[in-house]
Amino acid sequence: GLAQAMWDMNPAQLQPTFLGMVKSPTVTGMILKDERGQVVGFAGKIPKGLTAERNSGGERQVTGGLFSRYYSYSFPIIYDRGGHHTKVGEAVIYSDIGVVFNEVKVGFLFIIANVIVKTLVLLVLVLWVSRRMLSRPLAKLTAATEEVTLDRLENVHIDLNIKTHNEFKTLEDAFNSMIKKLNDSRKELSHNQQLFAGLVANTSAVMFIKD
Question: Which residues contact 50 (CB under 8 A, 6 or more apart)?
């Protein structure tokens, strides 16, 4: 649009085109130059000394000085005339450091919010997975221990179906070891009871038993 207006030397078309560009939230001002480098128009806030003291809107310019508060970006304006490219001018766009800071601040806040949301989602996921991983083995362990009775020890074996060696695997091994020891103790007790019963039945001596 700028290239066509400058090629046609049409100020009526040129003015609203570059005035509309400064409406961008990141653009504070703009200078338009012809092919000889002469300023043909400007809008918004630009550093003092580049143009007249007041811009087209009547606003006083902000002094740039040694530590300018502006960032600038310039680019050539090229008119395409049937495949033949002709430079008809140059545009310089300015952005105030405050605008840049606000953009960075918004982006930074968005990053923080994004990290917080992702952390919360990850925390909920970890808690859900951990609960699933904990509740299932605990339920199996509880069900297996409820079946443990002295007369059914030989048929009881706890299997939590855990492949890796972790705390649950250690607990499973400990319970199975305890059940085996209980079963061995039960067999030894049964043997001793049978032996005692045999002695009582086959002795002629007087025996006194006290609990």
Answer: 31, 39, 42
Helices (H), the chain: 2-7, 11-21, 97-146, 167-202
Angle at 41 between CA 39 and CA 42, to 5 degrees: 105
Q: What digits encode the pLDDT tens for the residues 44-81? A: 877 765 543 334 443 333 434 444 677 788 889 898 88
CA atoms within 13 A on the CB side of 23: 5
**pLDDT tens profile 199-210:** 888 888 888 878
**Nearest Cα to 159, choosing from 151, 149, 169?**
169
* Amino acid identity for residue 158 in this structure: I
Q: SS3 sequence, 62-102?
A: ECCCCCCCEEEEEEEEEEEECCEEEEEEEEEEEEEHHHHHH
| Nearest one of 55, 85, 77, 75 to 6, comparing CA atoms | 77
Give the separation between CA 93 and CA 195, rounded to whole angstroms.
Answer: 107
Token reading at 16: 């609203």
Tracing tokens 């939590």 back to the chain, one arrives at 160
Instruction: Give the total residue count for the chain.
Output: 211
